[in-house]
Amino acid sequence: MPRSNHLPWFKPSWIWRYGVAVLSVTSAMMLSLWLTPHIGFLGTLFLCAVMFSSWYGGVGPGLVGTTLSVLAFHYSFLHSPGPKPPELPRLYMYIVSNLLVGLVSIAQRSATESLRQTRDDLNRAGQDLETTNKALHAESRKREQAEQRFRGLLETAPDAMIVTNRQGRIVLVNAQVEKVFGYQRDDLLGQEVEILVPQRFRGRHAQHRNGFFGLPRVRLMGEGLGLYGRRKDGTEFPVEVSLSPLETPEGTLVSAAVRDVTERKQTEQALRQAQADLTRVNRVTSMGELTASLAHEINQPIAAVITDANTCLRWLSRDQPDVEEARAAASRTVQDGSRASEIVKRLRLLFKKDTLQREPVDLNETIREMLLLLHNEAIQFAVLIRLELAADLPEVMGDRVQLQQVLMNLMTNSIDAMKDVDGTRELTIQSQLGEDGELLISVSDTGVGLPPQQADKIFDSFFTTKTQGTGMGLSISRSIVESHGGRLWAAANSPRGANFYFTLSANVQVPQ
Amino acid sequence: MTTTDGSTVFVIDDDDLVRAAIQGMLKSVGLQAETFETTQEFLASKLPDGPSCLFST
Lengths: 512, 57
What we know:
The structure holds 2 protein chains of 2 kinds.
Chain A: H1 14-39, H2 43-57, H3 59-79, H4 87-156, E1 160-164, E2 170-173, H5 175-181, H6 185-188, H7 202-214, E3 219-220, E4 227-230, E5 236-248, E6 251-260, H8 262-316, H9 323-350, E7 359-361, H10 363-380, E8 384-389, E9 396-398, H11 400-418, E10 426-433, E11 438-444, H12 473-483, E12 488-492, E13 498-505
Chain B: E1 8-12, H1 16-28, E2 32-36, H2 39-44, E3 53-56
Parallel strand pairs in B: 1-2, 1-3
């Protein structure tokens, strides 16, 4: 920074300083020579010259001025007309006073100079401060703008945005958070973010939060898991959360975008329900049609048996029994019976192996498909579903629809058995591969359990413990499993409920 | 329980066993029956002028 113009305060060159000293004394001398004849000798003029020389030029010129003045003074005394005062003491006094005046002038000059210097330094420091201040202002304005832009961005985001610090405390939220979670902004700031998580997930959430800071990157939270948020009133709703780290001067923060997916889940659920209903309707319709036509087919010969047997009795119970007619009626009865038996045989043929649709079936997949269909029912009756499926389960050759029917039947039974039970309601489905190459599937519940003393009857046709049951489910399931070369059996579950097991042979051959 | 006026019961059923059973039953109570597998067959037949009965399941 250039210094401002302080020309008189620059030390003038030595020629100037000494020149000025000589000039001052010379001027005083001239004036004194001119004035002395009129008003007598004026020593004061020389004092002024010394004062000026010292003030302007410093110590050297001051001494030169003093010396010259003393010489001039001496000369004036020697050559001035009139009475001569006692000479030496005056000369000494004169020298001393000249020196004193010179010293005082020098002291004054240097004091002024150092004051001036200090003032300059102060000015400079002040200017520096001002510049720094301006830069700081500009910086802080820039920051403020950046922060405003960030907040603006946060507010316009369609999702609820929550920014937390490493300790899991909420540092920033947007307006959507208020809408989605029902809290006021001020209720949340400084709180632990777990306040927005259902109680049962809080412990795990805190762990995962620490995990995120271990490897901070943009990602979806708990991908594939059903995540839930918790509103102020305690209600829960399904959410999707994406996380991203925010590097700030205060350390790493994490911003979470939370989206309420209730509607989407409902739509998905409705869609699944519709599909399930459709599948069920299809199955029920075809089953119903089959049953109706079977009933008619079988009922015809049976009705004929009854009619013919009655006719036979009537011929025989006449006053004079007509044996010929009775025989004719009896032989028709035999034909009717044979017909009925024939129909039943044809029916059984339907379930024979070679008429089944055979294709490779992944039972784990089938189990999951059926669970999707039963999802709603399980939720409705607060049944917890546990899957323990062997990862490397081989496929089986079988009729996909029939195997679905078996699983559906067993799971529905289990849920039905738990509907009226207090306490744990748990449906566990396991799949495993036995050492003999057979797949073992088990469906276990904590329901009412098998009927006591009648456990062996549950697979009989028309045996049921349900008010709405047909008594055909387990019977049909068993024939399906057996037609696939497997076995289906039941055992009591401990401490409560029932286990149903079935085996199927693994598909070792490459399907055609 | 015997036929008094020779009138006939017409029986229509697609199941031969059922037809035979009904015919036999009617005969045992003294009624004469004629059987048809289809309604078309019945309509195509020569119908009597007097009162008669039609039995169909």
